[in-house]
Structure formats: C-alpha cells, structure tokens
Amino acid sequence: MLAVPTIVLAVITTFATFGSNGSGRIFGRTLTYTLLTTFAAAAVGAVLYVLITPSSLPEGSTIAIEAPSGAVGGASYSDHLLSVIPNNIVRPFLEGNVLSLLLLAFAVGIGLSKLPDSENKAVVVKGLLGLQDLLFLLIHWLIWTLPLGIVAFSAQLSAQVSAGIIADSIGKYVLVVLGGNVIQFFVVLPLFLLARGLNPIHVLGRMMPAVLMALFTKSSAATLPVTMETAEKRLGVSPKVARFVLPICTTINMNGCAAFILVTSLFVMQNGGTPLTFPTILLWIFISVVSAVGNAGVPMGCYFLTLSLMSGIGAPVAILGIILPIYTIIDMIETAENVWSDSCVSAMVDKDLQ
Prior knowledge:
mainly alpha
C-alpha cells in the first residue's frame, strides 16, 4: 500500500526538480557514477550468491500466501518484460507492477523537468512533494508497529530453526548479503576513488560522521543534512556540488539496496521453484539496479521494494517474513554503505569539475 506510491513519488520529484537547476553536466556525471557503482554492487551480490549457493528452505517452513492477481505465473521472462510497458496509467497501480510504475515515473519526472517554469508546474511539483512527505510520515508510523510483527515472525523462525536446514539456508543467505556489502564498502568503492585519483582512506576518514549516523538511523534521507555538512566542511567538496549531488544520490544511489534486492529476489525465487539460470540472474541484476534507483531513502525502503517486486511476479513472499527478524542489522549496514557511496560519488564529481 505504501511502498509503491512512495517509489513513484521519489523518482518523479527527483527528476522534476533537477532540470530547473541548469546543472546538466553535474547530473550527468552523478548519474553515471551512480549506475556504475550500483551495477557493481549487484554484480558482486550475484557472484557471491553463485559461489555460496544458499540452500532452499524446507517445505512448510513458511505460511502459504496466495499470489496476487498480477502474478506472471508461468509466463516467460520475455512476456514479463513486454508487460512492463503499460497500455494505460491505472493498470500498473492496480497490479502493483513496480517496473511499469518506474517507467511511468521516469517519463513524468523528466517531462516535468522539461516544462518551462510556470505557476502550474510549481503547483504540480509542490503537490507531489507534499504527498511524498505524507507517505514518509505513514511509513514512520508503520515502522512503529513493526516490533509486534517481528515478535510473531521471530516465533515462527525459532520454531523452524530446530530443523537445522533453515539455519543453514538463512545463514548462507545472510552471508551473501553482508559479504556483498563488505566487499562493496571496502574494495569496490575504494577502487572507484583510486581510479579518479582520490585517497579512499582520506575520504572515508573525513566522511565517517555521516557513515556512522547512517548506520544507526537506518535512513539515508535522515542522514542527508549531516552528509552535506560533512562533505562540505570536512571533505572540502564544493557547496555547489554537495548541495546538488547528495540530495539526488539520497534518492537514486542505493548500492546496498541493489545488492539486497538481487540476493533476496534470487533466494525467494529459488524457494518458489524458479530455476536460476545465467540469463535469469543477468535479468535480475538489471531489474535490481533499476529498482534501487527508484527506492526511497527511508528505513526498510529496500525491504518494502523487494516485497513489491516479488508480489508482482507471484513469488512466495512469505519467505520475507523469515528474513524480517534479522533485517534490522542488514538495513543498518546497507544504509551506511549507501551514504558511503553517496560520499564517493560527490567526491568524484567534485574532482572531475575542478
């Protein structure tokens, strides 16, 4: 109910507001680095998943949940890709088709950015921003109710751990997710910085206050003011770059989210009986990157987004209930990685423009 409209509004408002700033060159470099680092994060997750190969959960370990009416069922992936292009504006919302909604959101957001400045455009953009603020408030209310759900799912998980198979399967899944985040954080992103002639240790040391705050708030949006101040005053990034790049990165630069979406989607589909062939993994790397770009920078944003994606293809979404009790730690590490990636992108763009 909340994830789908939040995703759509996040994309529309981001793309609707950048056009009027006249900073196409900065945005182009920001988008390039964002896509490169996000793709790298998803690719690392895919390689680890193939190498570690988490086993499937035993039958009956999750509560059966009926697939939504929009599930593709036995349709081929080519049919599913073609169905992404909507034939009307209402159907994607009714079916919860996240990819179709992302396509619409990109079109509407870029269209708004190309409109000449006028009172009508300002009213539309302000209305969308107001709706986005309202949805963020509702999500925070939802998060306050999560302890009750976590207790219930923890009881279910505890009852199943005695079988041993769940512990092994979930353990390998967590190893893939966290391992991918660690490699992206300490290896891949520093390599990007080195390639642009920047010292990764210096950049991380200067941006550490923002990274630590992200770790504990689990929200890159909540951390944004600290990220901007730290980038400007400690790292020395130009205010023009920091104040333009970082708000955009908070919405579209989600390295940790891309890895989580990919690994979790593969794990859920595997448990649903979908064969994980090489073309399937490649397709879901692409879907994970596109979906991560549209994710909202709020707590549990990746979780809600993955749930929407899995519901859209009829996968056994009940498995996400087993993941929920351990998601807090995953979310903390992912958010810290997202803010670290935002910091790297702003530093690289600033270096390019000097």
